[in-house]
Amino acid sequence: MQSPFQVQFIGATGTVTGSKYLVKYDRYKILIDCGLFQGIKNVRRRNWSELPFEASAIDAVLLTHAHIDHSGYLPALMKRGFHGPIYCSVATKALCKVLLPDAGYLQEEDARYANYKHFSKHEPAEPLYTEEDARKVLKQIKDVAADEILSLPGGMTAQLIPVGHILGASAIRLEYQGKSITFSGDVGRENDLIQYPPQPLPATDYLVLESTYGDRLHEQVDAEQAIADVINKTMSRGGIVLMPAFAVGRAQLALHIIERLKHQHRIPDVPIYLNSPMAIRATELFYNFHDLHKLSEDDCHRIDEMTHYVKTVEESIALNQRKYPAVIISASGMASGGRVLHHLKTLLGDHKNSILFLGYQAAGTRGDSLTHGATSVKIHGQYVGVKAEIHNLDALSSHADYAEMTRWLEKMPSKPKQVFITHGEASASDCFRRHLKDRFGWQVDVPEYLDVALLD
Ligand SMILES: [Zn+2]
């Protein structure tokens, strides 16, 4: 059946997760991003609901970047019948090899835990997908060079534009019969310490923009000094600094800053542990893609020398029994899962310790509760009292704030016909909509879940 050129918003509406856009044209259907919903239960439930399209009818998927909220639904899509190619940048493909099997493993763990505790409505609880399902996806991924014009079925073309954020992250510009639409994906910072700034977007008729920080500016603080202060204060009390960090991107940034601080003797020579198998693999990849980030081979070598990599479960348990000053970097960044939970359980109850979050904390996550002053949080079914000092260094976020986004958009050669704001909490998206309308006079809308826009 023939369809006019159109886009449907299937995720990242009123939330920062579950990015998915269905583009239809002629008799073809492609998906831009295929992310998992995360955070609040009502949002997560959407991972299990019926799709508003036939997975088997999708001709191709294109990924902006590897973060799970943009790629983590792929194995579920394949289980439901998708068997086409998945296109993305070289680094995104490499990162997916690390992130997707891990996401499958976590789904299996969750199901095992639900069965053990009998709290699932479904007996037995099934994982959304398994590690093996995720490995099947990897075979379908094909990489696209940054300057390549990719040909898709029916005369559609696609182009990737690097946007900082994390290794390999790109905006995607589609063109069909002279009409174009560009999806920003997640947009990085103009002055990130390790990622290059986002490249200016080419002219586009339609533009889908993220709005994680659509209503906020990052604090203008010296992030290095702030980290030095937390570490020094905690060390003087004989405590441990725990940094929950996103395995890809912020974990490497944290290591780089700590290495510089040590090198400049601004913090004591305490041991630094990276306790996340996924972050360890992402760090190794980082060392391989030298042309895609700002760190030199020397920088990478010094970080490698400094860091104790905690690989096995036994090493992780031993680290968790440590009583002496140390800095531990562990995932996940919003404390929604992973090894960081075991550390939180042991460290939260002691005022000597500090927990230092490094960026956006989505609604409903433990990171969100803790940075908003929760006096206790539930971990593995038990409440844990909070006595440790909690900090959130938002200045190290990997997302541009609305002023940075605006300066990036100013570089566009011409005015888009229409802009769609997605990937934000409802209030952030609406603030960004008003801001862009006032600043540029653009036609800007905030689509809702399942809205369709014709691209004529
Ligand atoms: Zn991202």
From TrEMBL:
Occurrences of domain Metallo-beta-lactamase (ranges): 17-235
GO MF term list: exonuclease activity; RNA endonuclease activity
Pfam families according to UniProt: Beta-Casp, Lactamase_B, RMMBL
Keywords assigned by UniProt, alphabetized: Exonuclease, Hydrolase, Nuclease
Domain of life: Bacteria
Beta-Casp domain ranges (all copies): 251-370
Gene3D superfamilies assigned: 3.40.50.10890, Ribonuclease Z/Hydroxyacylglutathione hydrolase-like
InterPro entries listed in its UniProt record: Beta_Casp, MBL, Metallo-B-lactamas, RibonucZ/Hydroxyglut_hydro, RMMBL
Name the record gives this protein: RNA processing exonuclease
Organismal lineage: Bacteria, Pseudomonadati, Pseudomonadota, Gammaproteobacteria, Oceanospirillales
